[in-house]
Amino acid sequence: MTSQTTPRIAFQGALGAYSHEACLQAAPDMEPVPCQSFEGVIRAVREGRADLAMLPVENTTYGRVADIHRLLPESGLHIIGEAFVRVRIALMARPGAALSDIKHVRAHLVLLPQARSFLQKHSITSEPAADSAGAAAELAASGNLSDGVLASEVAAEIHGLDVLARDIEDLDHNTTRFLLMAQEIDLTRRAERMLTTFVFEVRNIPAALYKAMGGFATNGVNMTKLESYMVGGSFTATQFYADIEGHPEDPAVKRALDELGYFTNMLEILGVYPAHPDRGDPSGM
């Protein structure tokens, strides 16, 4: 824990970023600590400058966040929760500007295509920015009434900008999943529906992955995610990142993990945590 009176939570980006919005939703009583990189977020917790980290792992439109699965096992941090943020895009401008005044907008590269229809309808040109929230801060410091920024409404509130249009994204389901991480692992059963995340490396034997996955199928354990990534620059050393439903102490999960152990060189649990309500019911009920 940090020596700060108010607990702190670190995130990547500037104040007003979607990661900041995730912090406000999941930990509204904590002081947000913006960092320039994912590595910086991890260091802030490891060095005691923050108590928790908020890291994005995947997006419903763009898939997994680059590099994050490589960083998580090496971070020394553990997952204690998850959060989901719907990517709602707002067009913001300096006070006094009207929508008809806006000729040009800036935003992070991944946001611009998501609002293509709106921009074309209003004949607004665009250019990418390194950070949407940072672009909002720069716009607030300028005197330009014909420029706008696409970002979260949180950015407009922080930087004193007016929101001229809301929910302008083309897709209404674009959601980012975040992981809430701490230095200490929490293995307590804190909810009826728990998730377990782990990484493993299969042994170099025929059909090792097939055999390793068999234990989850035969024991009725739902695996919600399985992704592979190379380690150490080798095409043969492949690690897998997995999310399953259940707690390691559940009999079925315990049997499946025990069976997995027979076919792996390495197995490490990254976290045991409650499933967020926005995850939905896998049964479809």
UniProtKB/TrEMBL annotation:
Keywords: Amino-acid biosynthesis, Aromatic amino acid biosynthesis, Lyase, Phenylalanine biosynthesis. Its EC number is 4.2.1.51. One of its GO terms (cellular component) is cytoplasm. Residues 197-274 form the ACT domain. GO terms for molecular function: prephenate dehydratase activity. It holds the Pfam family PDT. GO terms for biological process: L-phenylalanine biosynthetic process. It comes from the Bacteria. It is an enzyme of class 4 (lyase). The record marks T176 as: Essential for prephenate dehydratase activity. Pathway: Amino-acid biosynthesis; L-phenylalanine biosynthesis; phenylpyruvate from prephenate: step 1/1. It catalyses: prephenate + H(+) = 3-phenylpyruvate + CO2 + H2O. Residues 8-183 form the Prephenate dehydratase domain. This is prephenate dehydratase. It comes from Sulfitobacter delicatus.
